[in-house]
Amino acid sequence: MASTEVDRQVRISKIAGRYLVFDIDDVAYIRRQHGICAVFTGTMPQNPTQNVFLGLPLELYAEDAKMLLDRKVAYIADDPLEHLTQLKSMDDEMRKSYLQSIKTQRRTAQLVFNEAKAQSMAKHKDKRKPKQPQPPVVVPTELPLPASSADDVAAAVDQEEGGAESLLGSSSSKPVKTDSSTPPQKPLVKEKLPAITPTTSNAMISNGTSNPDVENHTALPLYSYLNERGYFITPGLRFGGDFSVYPGDPFRYHAHYMANSYGWDEKIPMLDLVTSGRLGTAVKKSFLMGGQKPATENSEAGELRAFCIEWAGM
């Protein structure tokens, strides 16, 4: 693991009770190192009604945010309050640093555009039709003029040049004197860079330490239990459960379990067990349920037990 990732602190923005991650590097880090997929919720400005390929920001479960806090790899920022506070207290040095970061992003975008253009030109180079050879041009041979005719032509040329000089001014015919010791100055060309829309303001805001309280969910123990054992977890609504549990990255595997979390002393109706077990079998998954023994005055939270149910018939 790179040294930058060891000391990395993921910024989680809490906005309207939702936990959002806006930095793509943070998204890649928590997925690779902590097995957290979460859900992309951003849409493209050009196609706001699409709902298949969503983008930043990434919305975390409250369980995700609490787990990252417990591992001390993230902090939660009360984004609206902290954003305005930091903007009002920004000094000149921070402003210059932010503008420089924007310029760096624009140069990076220009390099990407140039590389894509070069690849496109190389790809279509062989498809272009070769130019047809042009027929040779026949130049007529000039015959020598008599002496009297040559004198007439020279006089006519001198007359035309004199007329052009009178029209353009006498200064055009005079050579311009230049100082050989002074090199000619090149006109300043302003660097043209593409315009970009920054997706984050991290370069403008320093790392904060505010950690608003995270809602305590009863599903957190089961969620942490599965995550610590290398499982990837995504929302399980489409399969009829709290979570869909994958043995690895969802890009490579199908879900093996649909999971529900229950309290230690919570009574579970038999009908829920039957319907969940049959539904899990119908979607080719096992129904997993679990709960943790609650903490008491004399002891901390105890063991967590998990069970799988499969519909086998009667």
Automatic annotation (TrEMBL):
Any one Pfam family match given in the protein's UniProt record, by short name: tRNA_int_endo
TSEN34 N-terminal domain mapped to chain residues: 10-79
Ranges of compositional bias, category Basic residues: 122-131
Family assignment from sequence similarity: Belongs to the tRNA-intron endonuclease family.
InterPro entries per record: tRNA_endonuc-like_dom_sf, tRNA_intron_Endo_cat-like_sf, tRNA_intron_Endonuc_cat-like, TSEN34, TSEN34_N
Positions with biased composition (Low complexity): 147-157, 164-183
Domain tRNA intron endonuclease catalytic: 222-289
Name by which UniProt lists this protein: tRNA-splicing endonuclease subunit Sen34
EC identifiers of the protein: 4.6.1.16
Keywords: Lyase, tRNA processing
Function recorded in the entry: Constitutes one of the two catalytic subunit of the tRNA-splicing endonuclease complex, a complex responsible for identification and cleavage of the splice sites in pre-tRNA. It cleaves pre-tRNA at the 5'- and 3'-splice sites to release the intron. The products are an intron and two tRNA half-molecules bearing 2',3'-cyclic phosphate and 5'-OH termini. There are no conserved sequences at the splice sites, but the intron is invariably located at the same site in the gene, placing the splice sites an invariant distance from the constant structural features of the tRNA body.
Region called Disordered, residue ranges: 117-189
Keyword Lyase attributed: yes
Top EC class of this enzyme: lyase
